[in-house]
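User: I've been trying to design a sequence by hand for this structure and keep getting stuck. Would you show me what you'd pick, starting by listing the structure so we're on the same page?

Assistant: Good idea, let's start from the same input. This is the structure you sent:
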């Protein structure tokens, strides 16, 4: 709120993820495909690869890299992000260690040689955020909420569930602190920071259920809580001065319905990189000619806007 009120942060109003799974969401997020046009992520290049080809130094600091190592989902994503052939061509640096808390990952990055290396730089942070086991997502000094702060407004909200909600609130508070530390890394630079989640998470919001539901029968409320995601773009003070038209354009589109499978053209435009993937104005969310198409979720089996309009 402080960054937004100062004019640096543009918060988007209606953004969804095509999946409630990290692996599937991130693959589509990093690829230059559009699900609404029937395109598969594996048939299109990754937009970070285009930034690298355009002369950007590109780093990946990933606190989920070792999460549930050996599981099918972790293997599925890591075999893309860290395949030797791709990683050697794509990244100029990656983290060597993961950490219990995301703040330590950011400290590790700040202490590395990657922060100021190169004239053009793209730094990607993949945080643990508020993924499950919420009590393990924040240091004890960030324990501000307890079960007593959670209203008892549903019969299933007995003590244990209210404690879980309080842990989630604390993890969210800590995540806000971590994001502010990331912004502070770039406050004196000519920088644009894009912040988003790969999926949502239920925490007894409207029913006796937590985490993510993989039942094929989707409901409107489930889609709202598990597929709606926060999305915001921050401009440093120097970036506001240097690219005022770009800031105004971002503000102008902040109420548009978007899906994170199509952030590639937006990222290329913010980075000042021109390619055939953002020259087609109908694909670019920053263009007046943008045609978003249907927001199709779960392998195009669910029309988000049709479902949630009920």
């Amino acid at each position: 709120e402080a960054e937004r009120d100062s004019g640096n942060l543009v918060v988007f109003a209606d953004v969804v993820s095509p999946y409630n799974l990290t692996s599937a969401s991130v693959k589509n997020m990093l690829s230059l495909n559009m699900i609404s046009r029937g395109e598969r992520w594996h048939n299109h290049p990754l937009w970070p690869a285009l930034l690298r080809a355009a002369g950007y130094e590109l780093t990946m600091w990933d606190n989920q890299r070792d999460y549930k190592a050996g599981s099918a989902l972790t293997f599925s994503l890591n075999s893309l992000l860290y395949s030797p052939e791709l990683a050697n061509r794509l990244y100029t640096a990656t983290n060597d260690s993961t950490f219990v808390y995301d703040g330590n990952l950011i400290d590790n990055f700040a202490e590395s040689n990657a922060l100021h290396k190169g004239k053009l730089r793209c730094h990607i942070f993949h945080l643990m955020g508020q993924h499950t086991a919420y009590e393990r997502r924040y240091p004890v000094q960030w324990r501000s909420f307890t079960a007593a702060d959670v209203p008892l407004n549903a019969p299933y909200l007995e003590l244990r569930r209210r404690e879980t909600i309080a842990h989630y609130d604390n993890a969210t508070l800590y995540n806000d602190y971590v994001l502010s530390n990331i912004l502070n890394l770039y406050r004196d630079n000519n920088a644009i920071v894009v912040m988003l989640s790969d999926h949502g998470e239920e925490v007894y919001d409207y029913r006796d259920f937590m985490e993510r539901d993989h039942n094929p029968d989707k409901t409107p409320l489930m889609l709202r809580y598990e597929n709606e995601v926060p999305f915001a773009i921050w401009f440093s003070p120097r970036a506001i001065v240097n690219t005022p038209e770009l800031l105004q354009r971002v503000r102008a589109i902040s109420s548009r319905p978007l899906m994170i499978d199509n952030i590639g053209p937006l990222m290329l435009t913010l980075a000042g990189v021109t390619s055939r993937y953002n020259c087609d104005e109908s694909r670019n969310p920053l263009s007046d000619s943008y045609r978003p198409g249907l927001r199709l979720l779960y392998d195009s089996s669910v029309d988000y806007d049709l479902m949630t309009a009920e």
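That's my pick for every position. To get oriented when you compare it with your attempt: The chain has a mean pLDDT of 95. The chain has 13 helices and twelve strands.
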